[in-house]
TrEMBL record:
Stored SUPFAM superfamilies: (Phosphotyrosine protein) phosphatases II (SSF52799)
GO molecular function: protein tyrosine phosphatase activity
Every Tyrosine-protein phosphatase domain range: 95-348
InterPro entries (UniProt xref): Prot-tyrosine_phosphatase-like, Protein-Tyr_Phosphatase, PTP_cat, Tyr_Pase_AS, Tyr_Pase_cat, Tyr_Pase_dom
Entry protein name: Uncharacterized protein
Pfam family, one: Y_phosphatase
Residues of the signal peptide: none
Domain Tyrosine specific protein phosphatases: 247-339
Lineage of the organism: Eukaryota, Sar, Stramenopiles, Oomycota, Peronosporomycetes
Amino acid sequence: SSSGAGSYAPAASGEGASPSGIPFLRRTFSASQSLPPKCAQVLQDFLYKVDQLRLPSGSARSGFEREYMEVCWSIDKAPWYQAALTPQTKFTNAKNRYRDVLPFEKTRVHLVDADSGPAGDYINANFVDDKYIACCAPIPNVIGDFWHMVWQCNVHVILMLTNFIERERRKADLYWDKAGKVVDFKGVFVQLIGEEDHPASHGFIIRLFKIWTVDRNGSESSSRIIQQLQLTIWPDHGVLRDFRVIAPMLEMVNEYHDQASRSHEVDARTVVHCSAGIGRSGTVIAIDIILNELQRALRTVSSGVDNDDAVAAALDVQRVVHRIRSQRPGMVQTPEQYEMIYQYVAAVVGNRQPW
């Protein structure tokens, strides 16, 4: 594999610098005895809740499953739900990887310049909290649209949470040229320029793509470097048992996202896709939102502000999953994935298992 991916990795914070996201959380929770009593109590209450949710009730369902079903029913059974989905024609249907995974019309990405023919501006993708775009892995006839979306929507990071084949079924199609040849997707040019395994062998691959457009004379008019991380160890519909891959992956995603936002002076976005773009994608987006909200709340606490309400709100898993599921149908696909969000946050807050 070609090297060079590492040269685009963001520089680590200097010793004197305020640590970004995950290092800040590690530092805070390793010295949690220094947190104000009210804030420490909020964290203890959260860990107690996780322990309580583990227990089955009279129905033999765990609390995680009951809470998950409440979130699902509050949206999926709502009277507005069917009408909120993007109406399908045979042309738009031909661009869906799965017939039963459709976007909400209100939050879907509208393609601007892609030549989509009778399917118009359609792609099966939704904005989630504006920072993320969650989508299906593009099928062959949608690959050009996918790269147009990446270009149009200020995407600088792609997080791919699936393998191409899982359990002998195709889950994703290759949407770049592995040999590094330039591919012209109707005016958006894409080239793989670097690929390497993460140095700590955490189970993800880092790729770099150059993406650019040209002017009327055929000269490059503007370009950017896209960082793609592909996680290869998470089974479809399943959960990650070893949490240690998540922190370095999200740290890399957020560092590159923030660096791109600063250097390009835009609100950069991150595309997150698995196969359907709802299960693994929803789980990771929920975890990232919770960690970012928790970090912001704790920074105000560490600067002397009594902000235990914000810490409690950040730890409200049900609220976050409801919010993202209101923006793309089916986000967080199984009760086990919902529980994984809780267990991961408990690992972070309570150092309960390596993370």
